[in-house]
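Can't paste images in this forum, so I'm doing it all in text. The chain is below; anyone willing to post the predicted structure tokens underneath?
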Amino acid sequence: MTRHQETPASIPRGTLTGKAFKVTCIQAIGKGSSVFLPMAVATWFGAGGDTDAFFLAFSLIACVTDFLAAIAESALVPHLVARLKHPDTLRGFVSHLARWLTVALGVTAIGLWVGSGWFLTQAVRLDAASAAVGRQ
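Text version of the structure:
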């Protein structure tokens, strides 16, 4: 039986369970350690506009990352698994996907960079000096 013709019944169960357990432990360590970053930053820098701007930026990035991870998990992985059944179309699909993701991420990054100053001053009501951090 080749690698592309394996069925779920032919995959050793212990291997899949062990890998799932390892991934779960790594995710738990990563999520658990994210609790300490805000405490360390607040202790080191204290309360203020700069710290608030950092937490806002950190939260926005975490939100976008979680959103993209959910999309990849629920939409992208099933398509890639389906393409593994037809390896001749996999390379074209991945290059097409990489092209569109590059364009989408570039447009998103430019939009966030252009709109961040307005967002920080209007929606969050930070002072102008705190909103301009990193734009000098």
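The mean pLDDT is 75. The helical segments are 13-33, 36-45, 49-84, 87-122, 128-131.
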